[in-house]
Design brief:
alpha+beta, four-stranded antiparallel sheet, 5 helices, globular, disordered C terminus
Length: 172
């Protein structure tokens, strides 16, 4: 087990966990909400519902005629390959950056699964207030957002510290 904890495999397992949770929650949402009413979690703010997104984030290019399925799929495959290699090349002592990348990877592959299998992404989490509605999203979208936020935080607040600690450990 200690070898697993120092291997990039642990980050790929985190990405796999995101994929499994994402797909399981999408299956649940389809069964529960596709033909039924939405479930109010926090009335006036949060509900579970069902939506199909044929585009990218915020339904970008949703009405493009079908080519976007393959375009976004190709982008996800290339991006995921880059992230897999990025994680593999990180020092074993790093934690924050590979966690962020694993979340992004799992989210990208979870949505890629839907896009390639169905031609659209299944969304079910709806945040709203009055007449304002945030675009409906899913677990994969949350993982991507949290991972991206983690990378931004690292870049803004910890990048110099990470480089300094990497240089110090390399000198020892």
């Amino acid at each position: 087990m200690p070898k697993l904890l120092s291997s990039p495999l642990r980050w790929y397992l985190l990405a796999l966990l995101v994929i499994v949770v994402d797909i399981a929650t999408k299956v649940w949402a389809v069964e529960r909400f596709m033909y039924g009413p939405a479930l109010q979690i926090i009335p006036g703010f949060l509900q579970f519902t069902y939506a199909e997104n044929y585009g990218a984030a915020f339904s970008f290019l949703a009405d493009a005629g079908g080519w976007q399925r393959w375009f976004f799929g190709a982008i996800a495959v290339v991006f995921s390959t880059v992230v897999v290699l990025w994680i593999k090349r990180l020092p074993a002592a790093r934690r924050w950056e590979p966690t962020a990348l694993a979340l992004i990877l799992g989210g990208a592959l979870g949505n890629l699964w839907d896009r390639m299998l169905l031609g659209y992404v299944r969304d079910f989490i709806s945040v709203y207030y009055g007449s304002w509605h945030f675009p409906v999203f899913n677990v994969a979208d949350m993982a991507i957002s949290v991972g991206a936020a983690m990378l931004v935080i690292e870049l803004l607040f910890f990048k110099d510290k990470g480089e300094a600690s990497s240089k110090n450990s390399a000198e020892v």
